[in-house]
Amino acid sequence: MSFTILSVGVYDLLANFWLGTTAGALVAGWIAAFWFVRAATQLYLGRRRGDWFVVAWFSLLGIVHVLAAVQ
Could you read off the pLDDT of 7-49 as tens digits, one per residue? Predict the structure, then answer.
């Protein structure tokens, strides 16, 4: 999981190279799906206030990548 998150971060740092390209949109869509799955699986760990914050944060990251994919 950590390697995936690191890879996504590096990919995002290079956004000026891939934004607006077909390949970039596909990868951004995959990353959005990753963040949404990660958000949903957070509830497996619990349903405390902090868990809901993590769900919201990962969902926000997913939305940002959806917006990047459709740009």
Answer: 999 999 999 999 999 999 999 999 999 999 999 999 998 899 9
Between CA 48 and CA 45 the distance in angstroms is 9
DSSP structure class, residue 21: S
**Using one digit for the tens of pLDDT, what is the confidence trace for 38-57?**
999 999 988 999 999 999 99
Q: For residue 21, what are its two tokens?
A: 């390209």
**By the 8 A CB rule, do 11 and 65 touch?**
no
Can you give the pTM of this predicted structure? 0.90
Residues in the chain: 71
What's the CA gap between 50 and 14, in Å, rounded? 31
- Provide the 8-state DSSP code for 51: H
- For 3, 31, 42, 71, the CA distances from 7, given in Å and listed in that order, are 6, 10, 20, 21
